[in-house]
UniProtKB/TrEMBL annotation:
<protein>
    <recommendedName>
        <fullName>Deleted in lymphocytic leukemia 7</fullName>
    </recommendedName>
</protein>
<dbReference type="InterPro" id="IPR031510">
    <property type="entry name" value="DLEU7"/>
</dbReference>
<dbReference type="Pfam" id="PF15760">
    <property type="entry name" value="DLEU7"/>
</dbReference>
């Protein structure tokens, strides 16, 4: 479970980096849908996870965080799919890399 938690943390850091460096400027150039509800849910799951000690609830929360993160990344890829710019291609490639680095727990 520790390695799964490390992958979720690493992928979250990568996602924040992509959002700051690629998606932020792209959003200003050409607005696309961002699903804030998923991000809020992810934050809530992570907050709950941080309070847990290892055990069944920890495992369930880790799995929920993992699934929520995957959903966020997939929805961002879908949102970018219709944008006609080179920047979106780079952003999508970075997001797909995050998915590849986030195998199932």
């Amino acid at each position: 479970m520790r390695s799964a938690l490390a992958r979720v943390v690493d992928s979250t850091s990568e996602l924040v980096s992509v959002e700051q460096t690629l998606l932020g400027p792209l959003q200003q150039e050409r607005p696309f849908p961002i699903h804030l509800k998923d991000s809020v849910e992810f934050r809530n799951i992570c907050s709950h996870l941080a309070l847990q000690i290892e055990g069944q609830q920890f495992d369930r929360d880790l799995n929920a965080a993992h699934q929520c993160l995957k959903t966020i990344v997939k929805k961002l890829i879908q949102s970018l799919a219709n944008l006609p710019s080179d920047a979106h291609v780079v952003a999508c490639a970075s997001l797909r890399q995050i998915l590849q680095n986030l195998p199932d727990v």
